[in-house]
């Protein structure tokens, strides 16, 4: 087992051990012990940074299900390194934060077990090279996220949010699984690196496009892209550390990881480019637009996460365009979009994590997250305020924070992509910078809302539950650390670029060998160019819009409340439930007759239909034996009594008529040279009739069938149809060409079995197994009859029935 | 002969189906019994009718009638008897407990 494989398993092992430790150390906050794990993993992974930066990669393989080509193989390269560091690094900070956030009164062991499960699953997603293993971990993140969202399971909102996120992300996960299987069908391998190597030969395959779409469906649902973003705001019912970790820094980036990982596979295709950049761009706009109207700080942050994820997604889409071209200088221009995406990925994790933690602190100290109640907290919470300013201004894209750098690079990318002359970009290209700029204005506005509404303005003590004061130092460590990163990355972006981003670029663009192309130094100052003008424009327009927002808030009411995607989701669920229960109660009526009708109709349609459809009907009487006059008579007796049963007035008549049919059949057996059958039939018929007569007194009276005429007609039609199908099939079989009978063999009964009665030797010797089981049937029926009569349900048993 | 028996069996199937589709318990038990008669006739017919002598070796006949369907029917008769007996007692007990033989009145418990 290698280090990377162990890195995946250590959190799972920890999750198993947590309950044991929790019991042993009741006084200690279990989080302190858990904290060791991500810290250790972070340091361990960080040790790989220098070698990865030199362009080396690590592949470890362990067998899992080799016969299905499923190996537990992990692949450590630049891309998985970024995610690995984010998961463990932010994970450690979040756990540290959660130690102070959650009191020991909560069921902490559950919290940390779920969190460790999630961390292990997430590490599994980013390190797996085998896509089937990746899928396993992918679903594990969905499940552990479900458990974490519903951590306070006694709240209705938590359960609702958890179910919603599970339905959406698992739905996407299934689609992705199908996409993976399609990829396997095309390429014959589950290993990402091998897929990248051979996918070029399969671009024309009819599975190529469906596989791409299904994979993107999985990625979009997980990364909360429009219109699947609706689960993310509801997932804010989770404890704040969970929101900070899962729903800003890690899980929602699993979809982005998937897109980045599969860019070498599908990149360069117009569909891929348009879907990712288009959906990303719209999500960027829509998320920022919706964020402004939120009054709950966490919901606002959720929409801002949606928006920022859209931006990263859009950048990956733009970056994939360069794979359409050869590795030349022009193509490298577009790879910068991917560089920006990776850069913003890291930046977003830092500032969004910090912001969530600050909101958690405000919530924890003040008792509310509603911005209508908050205000004037700056004086009480100076450190939280500082962190909030750093995080918000970075998110808004202002210097001197890292968000400024990534926003400038984003503008560079959308300005470049406008000039792209492939994928019909000459028509629609202008939309990219325009929408991006508008969305950035909205981003600026909601960032200002976070800072101004919370920390400035009048302090309203009467609306707050608790007296405000600064959080404990321990709680502040994690957000302050993240804020330091926010500032640090702005001043030293190239350290990050050289050691982390460059190798990740090599993973996304394996065909671009010369790594000099793949990196340009990041500098905060480009001179007075268009990007800077755009930022200044955002600053001015955004400020104006923020100041005047009460005048244009009316636009949010233009669309009725019932038209939201949330309502669509809720209504779809209700409609599906109502629809399926309607259908089920429509055909599951509880009447035996209806079920029998289904069976008979199916029989008529299936058997009769096949007979008609294949034209198998065939009839001739060439081989028929001649009919004697007394055979006609017996047939007449059977026919008459059968019809007469239908019209019988009393049960005695019907029982006797049934007996008549039985005896007539016994006579037929005599005529057909079957003495044993005739004997048995007579005996059995006698006993059956006797049984009927024995029960006679106790049996219900033979009433006239008082069914409606309509259902009687239906019954009549169905019975005639069943009988006709029966007759037609039997006649066709009789007239068909058949093999000779095997009964000649049984005529050796004397030599083989020492008996002269062939039927009896068959029953007791050749096929005695049947007879044995038949005896058992008789025995069971006897026991059944006995117990039905003797064992009567007492009064106690009636209660069981209720 | 075969054609006649098949048509007869078909009529028995019709009658049995009609009885099984009705509401009374006893009609259904009777319908099931008649259905087995039809099936026995069919089995018999499929082996060929009156194609030889009684399947007893002492007869020194030129050919014997097919013995295999006879063995099958014999098994079936016994099983059918067992099932009919059980059904009959079940119907009796049902009537005794529920005071009705109308199947439309037997629809399980409300809370199921």
Protein architecture, described:
The complex is a heterodimer of chains A (802) and B (112). Chain A contains 34 helices and two strands. Chain A is mostly helical. Among the domains of chain A are: 267-558, no CATH class; 608-738, no CATH class; 758-802, no CATH class. Chain A has a two-stranded antiparallel sheet with strand order 1-2. Chain A is elongated. Chain A starts with a helix and ends with a helix. Chain B is built from three helices and no strands. Chain B has 112 residues and is mostly helical. The interface between A and B is large, with 96 and 87 residues.
Topology of helices and strands:
The complex is a heterodimer of chains A (802) and B (112).
Chain A: H1 3-24, H2 31-46, H3 49-53, E1 58-65, E2 70-76, H4 78-101, H5 108-127, H6 131-149, H7 156-187, H8 192-198, H9 208-222, H10 231-234, H11 240-249, H12 254-266, H13 270-293, H14 297-320, H15 329-366, H16 382-396, H17 402-418, H18 425-428, H19 431-455, H20 473-491, H21 493-508, H22 530-547, H23 549-552, H24 565-587, H25 592-614, H26 629-646, H27 651-671, H28 675-695, H29 709-735, H30 743-746, H31 749-753, H32 758-766, H33 768-790, H34 795-801
Antiparallel strand pairs in A: 1-2
Helix pairs in contact in A: 1-2, 1-5, 2-4, 4-5, 4-11, 4-15, 4-20, 4-21, 5-6, 6-7, 7-9, 9-12, 9-13, 11-15, 12-14, 13-14, 13-19, 14-15, 14-17, 14-19, 15-16, 15-17, 15-20, 15-21, 16-17, 16-19, 16-20, 17-19, 17-20, 17-22, 19-22, 20-21, 25-29, 26-27, 27-28, 32-33
Chain B: H1 2-20, H2 25-46, H3 68-98
Helix pairs in contact in B: 1-2, 2-3
Protein name (chain B): Multicomponent Na+:H+ antiporter subunit C
Family (chain B): Belongs to the CPA3 antiporters (TC 2.A.63) subunit C family.
InterPro entries (chain B): CPA3_antiporter_subunitC, NUOK/Mnh_C1-like
């Amino acid at each position: 087992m290698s280090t990377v494989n162990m890195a995946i398993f250590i959190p799972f092992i920890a999750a198993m051990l947590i309950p044991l430790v929790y019991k042993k150390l009741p006084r200690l906050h279990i989080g302190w012990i858990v904290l060791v794990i991500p810290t250790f993993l972070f340091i361990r992974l960080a040790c790989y940074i220098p070698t990865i930066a030199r362009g080396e990669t690590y592949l470890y393989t362990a067998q899992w299900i080799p016969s299905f080509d499923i190996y537990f193989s992990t692949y450590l390269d630049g891309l998985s390194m970024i995610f690995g560091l984010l998961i463990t690094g932010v994970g450690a900070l979040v756990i540290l934060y959660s130690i102070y956030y959650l009191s020991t009164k909560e069921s902490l062991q559950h919290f940390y077990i779920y969190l460790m499960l999630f961390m292990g699953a997430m590490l599994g997603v980013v390190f797996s090279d085998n896509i089937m293993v990746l899928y396993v971990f992918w679903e594990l993140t969905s499940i552990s996220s479900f458990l974490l969202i519903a951590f306070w399971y006694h709240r209705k909102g938590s359960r609702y949010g958890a179910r919603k996120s599970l339905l959406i992300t698992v739905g996407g996960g299934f689609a992705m699984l199908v996409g993976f299987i399609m990829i396997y069908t095309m390429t014959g391998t589950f290993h990402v690196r091998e897929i990248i190597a051979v996918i070029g030969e399969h671009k024309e395959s009819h599975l190529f496009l469906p596989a791409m779409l299904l994979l993107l469906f999985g990625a979009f649902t997980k990364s909360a892209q429009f219109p699947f973003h609706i689960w993310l705001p509801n997932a804010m019912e989770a404890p704040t550390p969970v929101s900070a970790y899962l729903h800003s820094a890690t899980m929602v980036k699993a979809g982005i990881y998937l897109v980045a990982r599969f860019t070498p596979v599908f990149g360069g295709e117009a569909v891929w480019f348009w879907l990712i950049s288009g959906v990303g761009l719209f999500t960027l706009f829509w998320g920022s637009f919706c964020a402004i109207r939120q009054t709950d700080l966490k919901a606002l942050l959720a929409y801002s996460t949606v928006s920022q994820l859209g931006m990263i997604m859009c950048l990956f889409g733009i970056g994939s365009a360069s794979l359409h071209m050869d590795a030349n200088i022009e193509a490298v221009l577009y790879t910068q979009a991917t560089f920006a995406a990776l850069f913003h990925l890291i930046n977003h994790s830092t500032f969004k994590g910090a912001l969530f933690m600050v909101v958690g602190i405000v919530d924890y100290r003040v008792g509310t997250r509603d911005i209508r109640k908050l205000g004037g907290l700056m004086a009480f919470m100076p450190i939280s305020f500082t962190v909030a300013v750093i995080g918000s201004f970075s998110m808004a894209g202002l210097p001197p924070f890292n968000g400024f750098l990534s926003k400038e690079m984003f503008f560079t990318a959308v300005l470049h992509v406008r000039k792209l002359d492939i994928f019909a970009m000459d028509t629609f290209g202008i939309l990219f910078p325009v929408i991006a700029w508008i969305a950035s204005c909205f981003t600026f506005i909601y960032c200002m809302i976070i800072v101004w509404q919370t920390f400035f303005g009048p302090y309203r003590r009467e609306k707050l539950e608790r007296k405000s004061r600064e959080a404990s130092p321990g709680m502040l460590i994690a957000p302050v650390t993240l804020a330091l990163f926010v500032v640090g990355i702005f001043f030293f972006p190239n350290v990050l670029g050289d050691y982390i981003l460059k190798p990740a670029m090599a993973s996304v663009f394996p065909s671009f060998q010369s790594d000099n192309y793949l990196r340009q130094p990041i500098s905060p100052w480009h001179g007075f160019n268009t990007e800077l003008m755009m930022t200044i424009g955002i600053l001015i327009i955004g400020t104006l819009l923020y100041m005047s927002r009460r005048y244009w808030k009316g636009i949010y009411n233009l669309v009725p409340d019932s038209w939201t995607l949330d309502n669509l989701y809720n209504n779809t669920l209700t409609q599906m439930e109502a629809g399926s229960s309607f259908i089920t109660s429509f055909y599951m009526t509880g009447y035996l007759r209806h079920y029998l009708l289904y069976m008979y109709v199916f029989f008529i349609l299936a058997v009769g239909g096949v007979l008609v459809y294949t034209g198998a009907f065939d009839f001739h009487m060439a081989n028929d034996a001649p009919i004697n006059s007394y055979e006609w008579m017996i047939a007449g007796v059977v026919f008459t009594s059968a019809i007469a049963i239908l019209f019988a007035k009393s049960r005695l008549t019907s029982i006797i008529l049934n007996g008549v049919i039985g005896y007539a059949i016994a006579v037929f057996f005599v005529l057909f040279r079957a003495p044993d059958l005739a004997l048995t039939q007579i005996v059995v018929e006698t006993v059956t009739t006797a049984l009927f007569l024995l029960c006679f007194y106790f049996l219900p009276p033979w009433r006239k069938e008082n069914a409606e005429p309509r259902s009687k007609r239906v019954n009549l039609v169905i019975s005639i149809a069943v009988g006709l199908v029966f007759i037609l099939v039997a006649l066709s079989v009789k007239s068909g060409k058949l093999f000779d009978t095997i009964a000649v063999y049984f005529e050796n009964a004397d030599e083989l079995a020492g008996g002269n009665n062939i039927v009896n030797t068959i029953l007791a010797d050749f096929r005695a197994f049947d007879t044995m089981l038949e005896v058992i049937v008789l025995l069971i029926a006897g026991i059944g009859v006995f117990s039905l009569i003797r064992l009567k349900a007492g009064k106690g048993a009636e209660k069981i029935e209720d | 002969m075969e054609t006649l028996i098949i048509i007869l069996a078909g009529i028995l199937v019709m009658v049995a189906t009609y009885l099984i589709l009705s509401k009374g318990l006893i009609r259904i038990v009777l319908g099931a019994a008649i259905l087995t008669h039809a099936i026995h006739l069919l089995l018999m017919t499929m082996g060929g009718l009156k194609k030889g002598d009684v399947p007893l070796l002492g007869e020194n006949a030129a050919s014997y009638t097919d013995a295999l369907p006879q063995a099958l029917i014999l098994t079936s008769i016994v099983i059918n008897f067992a099932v009919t007996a059980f059904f009959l007692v079940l119907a009796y007990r049902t009537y005794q407990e529920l005071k009705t033989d109308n199947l439309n009145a037997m629809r399980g418990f409300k809370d199921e």
